Amino acid sequence: MKSHRSKFRSAILLLGLIVSAALILQYAPIMQRVYALATLADADKIARNFMSIGERVPVNLIAPSSTPYRFAESSQTIELPASFVSQQITNSTEEFLQQTGSTGMLILRDGKTVYERYWQGMQANTTHISFSIAKSFTSALIGIAIDDQLIGSVDDPVVKYLPELENSGYANATLADCLEMSGGILFNEDYGDKKSDINRFQKNYAMGGVMSEFISKLTSQREPGEFNQYNSMDAQVAGMVLRAAIGEQSLADYMQEKLWQPLGAQDEAQWLIDSAGMELALGGLNVTLRDYAKFGQLFLQNGQWDKQQIISADWVKQSTEPHAPHLMPGDDNPLSSQAFGYAYFWWIPIEPYGNDFFASGIYNQYIYINPEKSLVIVKTSANPHFTQDVLGSKMAYVDLFQTIAKGL
Predict the structure, then answer these.
(1) How far apart are CA 55 and CA 47, in angstroms?
(2) Phi, psi for residue 288 in degrees, rounded to 5
(3) Would you give the end-to-end CA distance of the chain in angstroms?
(4) How far is it, in rounded angstroms, from Cα 387 to Cα 46?
(5) Could you please report the per-residue DSSP string of 60-113?
(6) Secondary structure element (H or E) that encloses residue 267, with its range
(7) Sheet hosting strand 285-287, strand order edge to edge
(8) Partners of residue 271 on adjacent β-strands
(9) In the Cβ-directed half-sphere of 261, how many Cα atoms lie within 13 Å?
(10) At what angle do helices 133-147 and 289-300 cross, to 10 degrees?
(11) What is the DSSP letter of 160?
């Protein structure tokens, strides 16, 4: 009798171990993703995390070009200014770069490298998360898709491509409204507020949630196209429109074909995806510093690369010049929640210099372009104080970039 009981207990124990192992295998990817994103900005891990996030969460890969392009080094390298002024405060440039967690900085002048430097273990072939710089890539791909006649127009309603959003806050929004951060959605994008909508979105993603389901539950706050309020869900919807329009391809595949191959990208890139395989168009692209620079140089050259018009010059112009009252820069614009100007996922300084514009991501990621100076500056960072520290503000970095431009 005891032998039978012993065998029964052993069988139950074995069954329990099998079930436990199965559950661990099933939920291990989600557990890894939750941990990776929960500790993403921890001060002792942030730099390493920003350079390796593509190894720890699901991604779609973007292959490097079969004909990689390498920028020539200029015979006239530059030194950064010893200091710069921002909001009437003089900052030591070196201290500023250190205090804001710099990981990489590359400067092109006339298409040649005049400055390149890395910190915190980053190297030339290290990918680094873009955060919202990915929005500018998404915008470029949308422009290409319009040229390819896969998308009819920026004036197309979102629901033409995404009928599943007919009962959401995006029911009356156009693609242009999304590109201009003017979707009219009720959404709080305060990264410092743990209860904000953006942090709720991040938790949903970490737990394996599908972005389209999250977005379908968002509601409208005002009529679209009237007020500029930064909302990363607008960018995600624009990316979802693009994904629906291009058919069988993923955004990563389309980018590899339309940008990475013709640009001569040197390195593989990764694009974070959700459980349904949809890319985080709002900010999940991981790219090396030199390949970020190629994208900036492409826009400096009005969409042309090696005598090929990759993006139409008209789209580059539309993307980087405010063209409506609610998009204009200025501290006193009643139709915008921010002082910076905006276009199709590109920013315009409050006080432009040399027709400059830039892409920006949280924790201080930048691609700054100054056409009059033939200048591209790429900057990656892992600033653990980003949500609390005014020092690392967008204003301060733009002031640094403009100081560099003015010194040329």
Answers:
(1) 14
(2) -80, 160
(3) 91
(4) 13
(5) EEEPPPSS---PPBPSS-----SEEEETTEEEEHHHHHHHTTEEEEEEEETTEE
(6) none
(7) 59-62, 269-272, 285-287, 128-129
(8) 60, 285
(9) 8
(10) 50
(11) G
Render pLDDT for 218-236 as a digit per residue (tens, 0 to 9): 999 999 999 999 999 999 9
- Does the pTM surpass 0.90? The reply is yes
| Nearest residue to 139 via CA among 311, 272, 325 | 311
The tokens for 340 are 């910076």
Count of beta carbons in the 10 Å neighbourhood of residue 133 = 27
Q: Which two tokens stand for residue 321?
A: 């010049």
Instruction: Report pLDDT for 379.
Output: 98
**Cβ atoms of 101 and 383 closer than 8 Å:** yes
Instruction: For residue range 100-118, list pLDDT tens digits in order.
Output: 999 999 999 999 999 999 9
DSSP string covering 269-283, please? Answer: EEEEB-TTS-B-TTT
Residue 259, H or E segment: none
Report the alpha-carbon distance of residue 222 to residue 238 in Å, rounded.
19
Q: 197-231: buried (b, 16+ CB within 10 Å) or exposed (e) per residue?
A: bbbebbeebbeebebbebbbebebeeebbebbbbb
When computed from its CA atoms, the radius of gyration of the chain, rounded to whole angstroms, is: 23
Which of 51, 64, 62, 71 shows the shortest CA–CA distance to 376?
A: 71
| Strand segments (E) across 151-252 | none
